[in-house]
Design goal:
195 residues; seven-stranded mixed beta sheet; globular; Rossmann fold; alpha/beta; two-stranded antiparallel ribbon
Length: 195
């Protein structure tokens, strides 16, 4: 099987960023920087997306949750990585972005991938857990335990926390180990509104 880096590079070649940008931003599709998609959110810098997907180490057939999926670009990339034997569920809090992201992903005809509007009172999709992999494209103030609880054993989550990327591994026994790498900037992760 090709290396993780090679699989991610192939996914980035197959799923084109330009298809997940606003008409105005498409002229910058090849720029290695975040691009505005509205509602205070961005389509992430390609280098960062490549690094996060490489860290996530998605395998064919995995069940993956994509939190804060925005335009749907990472959701479609994850769909390419898991293939038809896998499942990818993207969740986005902003209704307009969820609809747009769903339409963008539909252009790639992957019926194992879906995008839906997130419930503002819930982080992730606990009713569909566990997930083999969880990707979070928004910065948390602290490690989101609600999402870590949705990981399979074994499972991995990649999430920006306080400017560092956290790689969260749960082993077969359910023990969680967290490593922090690099320095990154993301829009804030919106945590659930409690009643």
């Amino acid at each position: 099987m090709p290396s993780n880096e090679a699989r991610v590079a192939e996914a980035l070649s197959a799923v084109h960023r330009i298809d997940f940008l606003t008409e105005h931003e498409r002229q910058y599709a090849d720029a290695d920087r975040p691009l505005v998609i509205g509602h205070g959110q961005t389509n992430s810098q390609p280098t960062t997306v490549r690094q996060m997907l490489t860290m996530l180490a998605v395998q064919p057939g995995d069940r993956v949750l994509d939190v804060g999926c925005g335009s749907g670009w990472t959701t479609a990339l994850l769909g390419h990585l898991v293939g038809p034997a896998g499942v990818v569920r993207g969740v986005e809090l902003v209704a307009e972005l969820a609809t747009w992201g769903r339409d963008n992903v539909a252009g790639y005809a992957m019926d194992w991938v879906s995008v839906e509007q997130a419930d503002p009172a819930v982080l992730g999709l606990p009713e569909l857990a566990p997930f083999d992999r969880i990707l979070v494209s928004a910065e948390a103030r602290q490690l989101p335990d609600e999402l870590a609880a949705q990981l399979a054993s074994p499972g991995r989550m990649v999430v920006p926390v306080k400017g560092r990327m956290a790689i969260v591994d749960r082993d077969e026994a359910g023990q969680v180990v967290v490593r922090r790498v690099g320095h990154y900037a993301f829009v804030p992760l919106r945590t659930p509104r409690r009643p």
